[in-house]
Structures are given as C-alpha cells and as structure tokens.
Specification:
Layout (H helix, E strand, L loop, with lengths): L14 E5 L10 H13 L4 E6 L15 E4 L3 H9 L3 E4 L4 H10 L2 E5 L4 H6 L10 H21 L2 E4 L2 H13 L5 H4 L4 H4 E3 L27 E6 L9 H10 L6 E6 L12 H12 L7 E4 L9 H4 L4 E4 L5 H5 L4 H7 L4 E4 L3 H9 L2 E4 L4 H13 L1 H14 L5 H4 L1 H9 L26 H9 L8 H19 L1
Length: 474
C-alpha cells in the first residue's frame, strides 16, 4: 500500500521518490538492482522512498536500511506517493501521473541509462511482434513515450558521453528544450551522467558458487559470462573459442550464469537455447561449457564472481553496440576480473585505454581463444591486469556514480522551466478507452517481452484488467 503523505514542514530534506521499473527483492535483474543501489546511495543525503509496483516484487529486507519502501498496486496509491514528494526518479512512469506531478510542481528526473530506442530498433521481437508492420508500430509508440518524457522531465541522467549526445539530440528534436526554456543551461545541466555502479563494499565469498560444484574443479581455469544472453550478444564466439582450446587444455571452462530470467514472461530466451545447441554440437556442453539456469540472487553473485579467473562479454556489430553500456562489466571490476570483450562499445574502448583486459574484433574466434589462452598461461600478465583494475575500482562505486545526481538534487529544479504538456495528447492514439487506461496501455505496448524490463509488462496488464473491471461495475 502507498504511504500517507508526509508533512512538508517536518521533512526539510529533499524528498525523492524512486519508482522501480522492475522486480525488487531477493532476485533482481539489472533495473531493480540499479534502483535499490541508487536509493541506498542517496539515502544518507535526503529522504528517499523506493516505490515498488511491479508484479513479483518481494520484501526488501536490509539490515540498517536507511530508505523507505512503499508497495503499490493502484494508480491512486502512486498518486498519493507523488503528492508526498519533491522529486520523482523513474524510467517507465505512468504518463497520467506524470502530468499531475508537473501540475503540482513535483520535478521528474528520467533515468535514461539505456538508449532503449536504439536497442529496440534492431531487436528480433518488439512487444511480442516479429513482423515488420507490428515492430514498426510498437517502436513508434516507444519513441512517442520518450518524446513525452523529454517534455515532462526537469532533468535526465544517462550512462556515458555517447549516450548523452544521443539523448540530447532526441530531447531537442522532441521539443524537450526550447529557446524559452534553455536559460543558458549546458549539456551536463540537462543530462547528467549516472552509469551503473559497483558495490561500495568489498566482495566476500561465503560459499563457492562454482568451484567444487557443477563438475568444476579447483584447478580449472574458469571464464565467466556474468549475465543474460540477449539478442545483441554473441555467445557463439566464446563457445567456439573454448571448443578450440579443449584439446590443448581441458581445464579451461566457460560458465554462463543467470541464463533464465526471474520474470516468467521472459524465462529462457531463444538465444540461450541456440547457445546450448551450439555447445552440444561442438561436444563441449556440460564438460567445458556450462549453463547455470537459475538466476543468481544479487546478494549472492559475488560467490560466483570470486570463483572465476577472468570474465568475458562479446557482442554483435550493431547500432545497439555503439551506444551500449554493458553493466555487467562493473561486476568484472568489482571482483577484479580481467575482461575479454568485443570491440565497438563504450566499455571496450575504456578497457583498452586503461589496460583492464583484452579487446578483440567482433566474432574473431582465434583472437578470443588467444586472449583466453594468454590469461590462462601467463600469470604475470593476469596479475598486472588485476593491479590496473585495482586503480580504477573506486571510481565505479555507487557512491561515486551517483555524485552528479546528488549534487543536482541538492541544487533543486525551481529555476527550470519545462515546455507545456499538451493535455489532449495521447501516447497510443489507436486506443480510445476511459482516461485511466491510456498510460497503462502505453506502458504495456512499448515494453520488450524479452527485455530486462519485462516484469513491467505483467504489472501493466494486471492494472488494465483492474481498471476494466471497475468500469464494468459502474
């Protein structure tokens, strides 16, 4: 249930409402983990409430937790939470409630840490559609949603400079900044940087997640793929690389963890099934290439990371790659794992510049095999890479990555003038239900069924059913 409105006079600190876009609880994917981590980092400096309305969220038990958690199931409960805050921080947010927030003078900060339109346009499936007409329609609705965000938001955050340039162009083209609203602001005063972060604490192994289990021995050299396998990744290249190394070194093992998403509507993607088939065809499935189907709880992932020797992340050459920010790389840094990555995205350039791993061309099986072989045989090189990782780790902690947002929230948004929102605008013009439905319908239609944001899909459908039921009873 939503919490009752706080008395503004008794809470002098800035009150921030983080609206989680995904499941929060014991088993969280990237979006849920991001919002919990940001709430934790902001809480010492302001009054923070994390709002959880996505189906499947569970109690968030943290010893000494310094932020509130509010669970909601109805729009009215979300409206109550908005009425009791100064700033909303969100990714996907009910557009009707966003209008109310604008009218009440509550600032909205949109979290654009993923250039989702770029990611979506090349996807194999968009909102369940695989035909060109359906994908074009759903992509258009997604773009309309972000165009609304561009005008409703007082401030935005994203992951890196490439994304900031892309989003700034999008916001300007969507009339989110006008000559009358610019007021001399610079690019970083419109869009700040808030990349994914790593834990401020040191990782500690409580149990062995890999070694001594799954057929893995203490003497094995473990290459870890630390995350899901989505459309834009390339799991085939490291599988082929491992298969080429088996005869010379049977102790080199590749492990994929978290291949089955905690959201049942996503489950095991087709890309995972294809990877397993390839490993089976090459005769390495279950011996040198292992898939751990269960989603690793966020609080336990260090037990798996610390059992690995190096980590790998390879992708396809695509538009998505150029603007991507591979959040799993932060876990590589946190666990001091040298990275083997494909060229093309922001982190590949960073890893190459800082000497934090080996960067190969896309789909270059011999180069990936050579990189793995080098780290397996050259302990001095691996140690030198780990030493360089040590020098950059502090820069990527959540306390550091949230610094720009904390400073912006301290300054406030009273001086920012937003473009006027058209009260007649609808995000999905092909629908004409009662006023309470369009924004929820828009959220349902725009989300990728197979994306990390998938849990919102089920929640949106539940809300639509609830609203329709109430209308029939009237």
């Amino acid at each position: 249930m939503g919490q009752p409105p706080h008395d503004r006079e008794t809470h002098p600190r800035t009150r921030v409402l983080l609206v989680a876009p995904d499941v929060i609880g014991e088993r969280m994917a990237g979006p849920g983990l991001r919002f919990v981590s940001i709430a934790r980092a902001l809480a010492p400096h302001m009054h923070v409430t994390l709002a959880a309305g996505v189906d499947g969220s569970t109690a968030l038990d943290e010893e000494g937790r310094s932020f509130d958690v509010a669970y909601y199931t109805e729009r009215s409960e979300l409206e109550d939470l908005v009425a009791a805050t100064d700033v909303i921080f969100c990714q996907f947010f009910d557009t009707h409630v966003a209008r109310l927030a604008n009218e009440a003078g509550v600032a909205i900060v949109y979290d654009l840490y993923n250039a989702l339109p770029v990611e979506t346009i090349g996807s194999n499936r968009i909102s369940g559609f695989t035909d060109e007409e359906g994908k074009d329609r759903e992509y258009s609705e997604l773009v309309k949603y972000f165009a609304f965000c561009a005008r409703a938001g007082s401030y935005f955050v994203t992951s890196n400079e490439r994304q900031r340039d892309w989003w700034l162009g999008f916001i300007m083209a969507s009339l989110g900044v006008l000559p009358s609203t610019l007021h001399g602001r610079k690019a970083d005063e419109i869009i700040g940087l808030l990349p994914f972060g790593s834990e401020d604490r040191e990782p500690e192994s409580v149990f062995h997640g890999l070694r001594g289990r799954h057929g893995l021995e203490s003497s094995d050299f473990i290459v870890l793929w630390a995350g899901g396998i989505w459309d834009w990744f390339d799991a085939a290249t490291p599988i082929r690389a491992i298969a080429s190394l088996v005869d010379e070194n049977p102790h080199i093992k590749l492990v994929f963890y978290g291949t089955t998403h905690p959201n049942a509507s996503i489950g095991e993607p087709a890309t995972v099934r294809a990877a397993k088939t390839l490993a089976d065809d090459l005769g390495v499935l279950g011996s040198n290439v292992l898939f751990l189907d269960d989603w690793v709880p966020a609080a336990e992932r260090e037990n798996y990371l610390l059992d690995a020797d190096i980590a790998i992340s390879t992708h396809q050459d695509s538009l998505e790659t150029h603007y991507a920010f591979r959040t799993r790389i932060l876990d590589h840094f946190w666990a001091r794992l040298p990275s083997v990555v494909s060229r093309g995205d922001w982190f590949a350039q960073y890893i190459d510049d800082q000497g934090l791993g080996i960067v190969t061309d896309v789909a270059d099986v011999p180069a990936v095999a050579a990189a793995i072989r080098t780290y397996a045989l050259d302990e001095a090189m691996r140690a030198a890479t780990i030493e360089r990782i040590e020098s950059i780790r502090a820069h990527w902690t959540w306390s550091e990555t949230t610094r720009e947002l904390r400073e912006r929230l301290t300054i406030g948004f009273s001086s920012i003038k937003r473009p006027r929102l058209d009260p007649e605008e609808t995000i999905h013009p092909t629908e004409a239900p009662a006023p309470a439905v369009p924004s929820t319908r828009q959220l349902v239609r725009m989300l990728l069924v197979r994306s990390p944001f998938g849990p919102v899909l089920r929640h949106g459908r539940a809300v639509v059913r609830q609203v329709s039921s109430r209308q029939r009873r009237k």
